[in-house]
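Hi team, as promised in this morning's meeting, here are the two structures we talked about. I've kept the exact order from the run log so nobody has to guess. The first one is mostly here for context; it's the second one we should focus on when we meet again. Sequence first, then the predicted C-alpha cells.
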Amino acid sequence: MKNRTFFWFILPTLSAMVLFIAFPIVSVFIQSLYIQHEQVLVVSESCGPFGCEETTEVDLEATSALREAQPLGRFNGFDTYINRAHLAFAEIGEAWRSTRP
C-alpha cells in the first residue's frame, strides 16, 4: 500500500481517536488542577436589646462575580493529588523515614 493511500485510509480513525479520546483526557487533567472557589463570607454584628451577636452570611453577588472571573476555580496544581486524602506524600515519607534504621 502506498503511503498516500495509507494516510487517507487511517485519517478518519486517527482523527476520531484524537477527538474522542485524547481531547477529553487532556481536558480532565487540566480541570483536575483547579479546585472550587471558596464562598465570600460577610461577618456582621447585630446588636439588640439583649446584647450583640455576630452573624455570618454568604455574599452571593461577590461569589458569583468571582466564579465568572475564574470559571475553572482556584489553581491548586498537584496539591490535589499529594494531600492526605489522595496519595499522602508527606505521611508516606514520614512512615518511610521512621521505619528505616
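And here is the second protein, the one for discussion:
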Amino acid sequence: MSYIWNLDDWPNLSWDLEQLTPLLTRVSHEQGRLLGKMEGLGFDLRNEAHLRTLTDDVLKSSEIEGENLPADQVRSSIARRLRLEISGLVPSDREIEGVVEMMTDATVNYDSPLTEDRLYAWHAALFPTGRSGMSKINVGKWRTGDMTVVSGPIGNEKTHYEAPPADRLPNEMKAFLEWFAYTGPMDPLLAAGLAHFWFVTIHPFDDGNGRIARAIGDMALARAEDSPKRFYSMSAQIRAERNDYYRLLEQTQKNGPDITHWMEWFISCLHGAINGANTSVGTILQKSQFWQRFASESLNERQIKILNRLLDGNFEGKLTSSKWAKMTKSSQDTAGRDINDLIERGALKKEPGGGRSTSYSLVLED
C-alpha cells in the first residue's frame, strides 16, 4: 500500500480553494460573531466559558482515544493552572495533570515557538510513567521503530495506516516545524487543518500522536485569533464525529496530494464546534442570571454545590433528597431542610409525583 508520504512531492499538499472558500467565509463569520459575543460578557463569565471549553477539550480528546477521565479532576487541574477561583476543587492524578499541562501550554502559550523540545515535553507530560497501559514506550523522543495503526483481534487485524519509517522522522519533523513557524499567507483556518493532518500523518511518537495533533490544531486556531482564551472545543466536535474523523484521515492518507476533502471536513467540524459554543454561552448566561437573583441570599455550601451542579448541566438523572444527602454527605433530614429552604426562596420547584419518586428542578427565568 502506498501512502501520501511516499509521494515525490510530499509534503507539498494541495486543495481546491475555490471549492472551500464559501465554507471558509461562513465559518470565519461565525467565528467572529462568537468572539464578539464573548467580548460582550464580563470578565468572570469569559473565564467560566474558557474553563468549560478547556475542560471539554481535555475530556473529549482523551475520549477519542478510548480513555475516560474524571471531569472534576480535569476541571480542578485547569482552574489551578489558570489561577481561577472556583468552588469544589479536588486533587488531580499525575496523568491528568500531564494532559492538562500539555493542552493549556498549547493554547495559553500559543505565541511561543513550537519546537522539538516543546513537543518532547508535551509527550513526557502525557506519559509520566514511561508507559502506555502495560507497554513501555519511548517518552519525550521520536519513536525508533515502525508505526502501524491497526484494529481487530490478534491474528485478524486490519491495517489502517503505516507511518513513515523512523529514520525519516528528524527530516520530516524539521520540515513540519519550519512550516508551522511561518505558514505564510495561507488562511489560518486552513493552516490549522493542515497542521493537524500533517503531524498525525508523520506519527512521530510511540503513542499520543492524535492528542498532540489536536493540541497543535488548537494552538494554530488560538494563534489565528491572537487569544489564549478558547471558547469552542474542536475535540468535542471531533468526538461527536469520530467515525468520520478516522475515515477521512485513512482515505486522505491513502490518496494523492489533493486533501480538499479533509480540509472541507475539518472546516465543517470547526463550524459545528462554534455552533456548540453558542449553546454553552447560553448556559453560562443562564447561570449568571440565576446567581444574580440570589446574590443577596445566604445559602449554605451544600446548597451552592448542588445548585452549581444543576446549572452546569452535569447532574445525572433527577434531583432527589436521597441524591442530595449522598452528594453532600449529609443526613436525609438535612437534605430535606436544604431542599425545602430553596423551594421557599424560589430556586427549586417540586416536580409532579410524590413519595419516594419525588424530584426537584431549578426555577429558571425566561
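Starting points for discussion:
The chain has a mean pLDDT of 91.
The CA atoms of residues 144 and 156 lie 26 Å apart.
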